[in-house]
Amino acid sequence: MVVGEAGLAVGLCFGRRRGTMEEGEGVCILSLKSGDWWFGEQQQQPAAAAEAEAHSHREISLTKRHRDSVTQKATTFMGLGMLASRVIRPTASNLSRLSSLHFIRPIVSTPEASSAQSQPQSDPTPDPPPPSPRPPVAGARVHFPNPEDAIEVFVDGYSVKVPKGMTVLQACEIAGVDIPRFCYHSRLSIAGNCRMCLVEVEKTPKPVASCAMPALPGMKIKTDTPLAKKAREGVMEFLLMNHPLDCPICDQGGECDLQDQSMAFGSDRGRFTEVKRAVVDKNLGPLVKTVMTRCIQCTRCVRFATEVAGVQDLGMLGRGSGEEIGTYVEKLMTSELSGNVIDICPVGALTSKPFAFKARNWELKGTESIDVTDAVGSNIRIDSRGPEVLRILPRLNEDINEEWISDKTRFCYDGLKRQRLNDPMIRGADGRFKTVSWRDALVVVAEVVLQVKPGEIVGIAGQLSDAESMMALKDFLNRMGSNNVWCEGNGLNPDADLRSGYIMNSGIAGLEKADVFLLVGTQPRVEAAMVNARIRKTVRGNQAKVGYIGPATDLNYDHQHLGTGPKTLIELAEGRHPFCSALANAKNPAIIVGAGLFEREDKDAIFSVVETIAKNAKVVRPDWNGFNVLLLKAAQAAALDLGLVPESANSIESAKFVYLMGADDVNMEKVPSDAFVVYQGHHGDQSVYRANIILPAAAFSEKEGIYENTEGCSQQTLPAVPTVGDARDDWKIIRALSEVAGVRLPYDSLGAIRARIRTVAPNLLNMDEREPATFSASLKPDCSHKMSLTDFRPAIDNFYMTDSITRASKIMAQCSATLLKK
């Protein structure tokens, strides 16, 4: 070793190469000032020179500072060699080593370089296999309208193809990576204000909000890096800065997004010690409870109210730490969809007021079922504890209700435990009911029905009846010799010959393809709230035009009020109305006729005029059927499919035996005073006061039954709670009565009665499938009836009370009293 004047020591170095077990020798240069080492290897042999040159960029890492210093020190290398030769006697071998230096490099220890250098030259390291694809989050599916628009992005090393216009967050979901979020919702506009969805993208200086960043071709997204984790921890720390520690008393506990994500992505400590802010609670009505101190300003509720519900009730007020959600003025939230803000709120700021402090979610048993309060057939989940239904939540169904439900569907459940019929009862001579056994009640009914003429027997199915019970009722009355059986809501002279005349032929989801709507005698906002939400979605997204014929109403979207009655229909049919041009120029026009017209005597003439309008506007084509009928009751479609059509329109006025199966909207003034009335149902509603015998039945939440919605899709309810008292399923009661009456029906089980339904209406057994109509209304004969010019009337006066369950609900009574005040 030789020390020179420049502060460098030069010497021969024998030993192992950097980071390897390979022996070698060379010249070492040591800086006495900085302590850096440089090692100069001997000249490579010609055969290995090419390999060393190829590996030079990979194995040797010199910073710019090192490169500059090496250049300066290499220029003085000859002088250093001369200095060394004065101390050490030069030998041929030493001179050969000094003259054969190939390059000079710093001695560093890099695991990657050492592992690559330690591999034998004859056995190169094989490339790692590409990672296998992961399943998408929540079964997400991607549709490519145009395969040429597909772009490729990389999520944590996984290659994913997504359509143009997708966000980074959606691309991550398709790649199987669940990105945390608070403000983002797939059915609402993008706000990008919670910043919880931050991810790292190559060649970007800082993390980006994945919900608002569009995916670009070749983008490399990293979701699990230290930078992304630190960013999420920081965001969570800010969110928890003012959030109160209410988890033990919060109704959202156990199903709170803030709880879950703070555990998964938050830090283990916070640095804020200041006093938390407090916000005054808002009064949004009898359904939604507010604790606004818990709000994190994600604005989901504001966007839902504005975009989906169509009401301008909620907004963001203030700035900075004084920012809060509230109503612009002191008013209630008047939307029929207001309860959905409870589901979309990620924290406990908006919760269910009737469900407050009732139960925790892990105490409840969830049962998938169907809503029967209207004809939409929304998919719901009934949460119960023991024998009591505690809440109703929506289930996802893209074809029917998406993930929303109406307030009537969500909050009518308390009516299932009020005014229930528990035991069979017979009205005595004093006019009071007394409890009897099932045997005694059925014997009395059988004795009376056998003494009445077949033409004087009438059966009416209620609006909540399932297909099995209506099939049993029709078979029983037919065996007794009567054909006078129908379902309430269908009128006394329904037309059940062509299915296209009483179902929604385009389907609920198919309404999104329409560009012009003509609403005839229907108010979808109160008759079918989910159909109205679908129409509003189409109006906002496709700028569809809406023409409305009927009494003045608020349809929460832009529409033209064309008229109030049949006179406007005649003008449209003759082409004299200005709206005819909109129908003629439309690509997919849709006509929606309200089922409230079924109760009019001139309904056949009205439908004939509407079919003329549809023919002129080419509403029905091979590729599009826009002629729709919006039903009101859950049992109407199945009743018409099963053929519940009365033989005589005036049969109830001459009836001596009336069998009411849950029918409460029948005009009992038409029933003769000497007629024997049997009421079979689950609530003591309007028809009970006229009944001679009461037979308790099971509600929809206590039985398994098939319901067909307004678009012709069959679905079934499942029992969530046990029956009340001594109640039985409707079809079982009729089956037992038929045996006592001596006309035994040939089915003893649910499977057997469904086999009977298959012979009458096999489409009812195709669960969760919409059965389109085979024949169009063009096959109907011309109508000779004269149309009345009487204006159309609203089919529903009170949205919150339409059947025996909602009329028994205390919550619905509060809504009627507070939200329907003029």
Description:
The protein has 822 residues and is an alpha/beta fold. It has 23 helices and 33 strands. The strands form nine sheets. It has a seven-stranded mixed sheet. Strands 1-2-3-4-5 form a five-stranded antiparallel sheet, with helices on one face. It has a five-stranded mixed sheet with strand order 7-6-10-8-9, sandwiched between helices. A hairpin with a 4-residue loop joins strand 1 (2-3) and strand 2. The radius of gyration is 39 Å and the shape is globular. Residues 1-123 have low confidence and may be disordered. Residues 149-227 form the 2Fe-2S ferredoxin-type domain. Residues 364-420 form the 4Fe-4S Mo/W bis-MGD-type domain.
What is shown here, in short?
The protein is an alpha/beta fold and 822 residues long. The strands form 9 sheets. It has a 7-stranded mixed beta sheet. The protein is globular.
Number of helices: 23
Distance between the termini: 103 Å
Beta-strand content: 15-25%
What percent of the residues sit in helical stretches (DSSP H or I)? 25-40%
Order of neighbouring strands in the sheet with most strands: 19-18-31-30-29-20-21
Low-confidence stretches: 1-123
Pfam families: Fer2_4, Fer4_NDSU1, Fer4_Nqo3, Molybdopterin, NADH-G_4Fe-4S_3, NADH_dhqG_C
Domain 4Fe-4S His(Cys)3-ligated-type: 227-266
Biased composition (Low complexity): 110-122
Keywords: 2Fe-2S, 4Fe-4S, Electron transport, Iron, Iron-sulfur, Membrane, Metal-binding, Mitochondrion, Mitochondrion inner membrane, NAD, Oxidoreductase, Respiratory chain, Transit peptide, Translocase, Transport, Ubiquinone
